[in-house]
Amino acid sequence: MQAPQQLYPLNLTVNGTEVSAQVPAKRRLVDFIREDLELTGTKVGCEVGFCGVCSVMLDGEPVAACHMLALQAEGRSVTTIEELSARPACARLQEAFKEEGGFQCGFCTSGQLVMGTALLEKHDVCQMETADIALEMAGTSCRCTGYYGIHRALRKAAQ
User: Fold this and answer.
1) Is domain 86-158 given the CATH code 1.10.150.120 in the classification?
2) Whole-model pTM above 0.70?
3) What b/e string do you get for 63-82 counting C-beta neighbours within 10 Å, with b at 16 or more?
4) Domain 7-83 classified CATH 3.10.20.30?
5) Sheet holding 77-79, edge to edge
6) pLDDT tens, 80-133?
7) Which of 53, 76, 89, 151 is deepest in the core (most CB within 10 A)?
8) With contact defined as beta carbons under 8 Å apart, do 158 and 124 qualify?
């Protein structure tokens, strides 16, 4: 018989709402978001922080939520795709993804939108070289599109 897991207090802001919970020490942020908060727009992919489908904003910066413990978000602000999609930059990017073929299967799309919105909010994408866009988006992988549609969508959303 296993001993019960010790739980630790977690207080953070998720999508503008104060959240308090008790979590095990090894609970990943992505699992907390998906399972405890039932915000399933954040996906689980490679589980080692490479593919970016689990990307969320932590204090305004994109991070791989599968690569973080929930307790590391103590006192911080997390923004998921559910909230981010209401921002003008993300709304423009979503429309551009549809128009420019920025997605196919859609599995990586939420992570691409998180990373792309962060890029649009911090840089003048219209002035960036394609290689620089690729470098900024390197934290997200797509096995379907070849990235051309994603890059076109980023440029279109920036106009």
Assistant:
1) yes
2) yes
3) bbbbbbbbbebeeeebbbbb
4) yes
5) 17-24, 7-14, 77-79, 55-58, 61-64
6) 999 999 999 999 999 999 999 988 888 889 999 999 999 999 999 989 998 999
7) 53
8) yes
